[in-house]
Amino acid sequence: MPARLLLVSLCSLFSLGIPLESRAEEPTQSPIAAFAPPLGWRLAEKQSLPPHVHIMVVGKGKHAYPPSINLASEEYFGNLTNYLEIVKKINNNGGFSWKSLGTICTAAGEANLSQVDMRTEWGEVKMMHAILFRENVIYIMTVSALKSEFSAFYKDFYAAMRSLAIAKMAEK
Asked: Which residues 6+ apart lie within 8 Å of 172 measured at CB?
């Protein structure tokens, strides 16, 4: 189902009690992609994440909901414009405030930048998504923090999103 990744909010991942395995001070990578995490953030154990979430790093905030960054992907046979329309519809139907903010230049190329505000059991949460489409795969980097703390992490979030690199696909 297209856009299912955006429905797997970091709120639900956090509520699972994802164990952290180590500091993520080197570029954080999976076989499909890599990004530079903020210094001192911790890497979530891969086996604790849903299958389509490849990487997750978690920082320290002042409250129970920590700032986090994750990278997920899903196969999609369409185009980015249609995918974003699906994302918008899903978020609007879920009662979330979603808006496209334009584009962001990443190491992998230009990606759509969007924002979602939602109410959770931990309070108001703000998420931003860098959504990139390559060779029938959607890559979604999600950054998330409590709305009241988001601005404190914006510089780190922006740097991580700009560092997003996609592994070269194998020749067929």
From this structure: none
